[in-house]
Amino acid sequence: MYTLISVVGLVGNFLVIIIYLVKLRPWKSSSIIMVNLAVADLLYALSLPVLIQFYITRNWTLGEFMCRFTRFCFYYNLYGSILFLTCLSVFRYIAVVHPLKAAEIRRKRWGILVCLAVWAISFVEISPMLGMITVQQKHNMTKCLDFASNDPEVVWWYGWILTIFAYMLPLLVVCWSYIHIAGSLGSSISRNRPSRSRVRMLSILILVVFVLCFLPYHIMRLLRVDSLRRPGVPCIQRRGIHAAYILSRPLAGLNTFFNLALYTLAGDRFQQAFRSIVNRKERTTSTLSVIHSPNIISKKDPMKT
């Protein structure tokens, strides 16, 4: 799963950034948020190869700093993505429910301010984690421990704080925005317009990411830490919780797949820009075929030149 996320994340997000840089200028506030979301996903995908190598060899050889940095990248992307998606929901809420303020919220300065705030808040949220993640020597092997596999007494309350303020609170904001967007679209005269359908699909997709990708991870992380801190948990139960927690981590990373779908739903002529790049390649291929075809004929029959 990490390999798939790494390959798709690298190719997809690199292409998204190129399209926004080359084809979709000038940017609006939502465009700036989208580019920053793609950068966050790209940085996460770049950190995965060393983690994949660790899971293959079961031995961490890159030292404690790289262990902390790799784990840090996962959480930086996770909580950065949560905040970026929350901001997109709020921006769409303002554009749909308060259309008179839409022109103001689309200004680039709002996108810049929001992105700077997201990067800063995400760093503050997870910076204590840098002192909690460690490496462990066991059976002549070095393990790069995940956050939830470290000292449970240290990470227990911090894990709850992250879950409540960095996940559940943004989830409530997203749900609140979606409820008001749905109500506004339902009472709108032009509710069948394609733009309205796109806004509705965008809201639903963000909700799916929050529930399908982020919710299982936060539940299993709390259960994992709780199974380590309680002495009476049976070994087989602890192993089962650990296995489910291991699966929930790449599931959370799959938000990068859904984020790629967001770019086609968020407007900004993204689909047209992507098609123009593909059509340009097709036209180039056709032109090269026309240029080379006389040479091929002349070699076969000089009288036809």
Automatic annotation (TrEMBL):
Pfam families: 7tm_1 (PF00001). Coiled coil: none annotated. It comes from the Eukaryota. InterPro entries: GPCR_Rhodpsn, GPCR_Rhodpsn_7TM. The chain crosses the membrane at residues 6-22, 34-56, 76-98, 110-135, 155-179, 199-220. Keywords: Cell membrane, G-protein coupled receptor, Membrane, Receptor, Transducer, Transmembrane, Transmembrane helix. It is found in: Cell membrane. Its main location: membrane. One of its GO terms (cellular component) is plasma membrane. It is a multi-pass membrane protein. GO terms for molecular function: G protein-coupled receptor activity. Residues 12-263 form the G-protein coupled receptors family 1 profile domain. This is G-protein coupled receptors family 1 profile domain-containing protein. It comes from Cirrhinus mrigala.
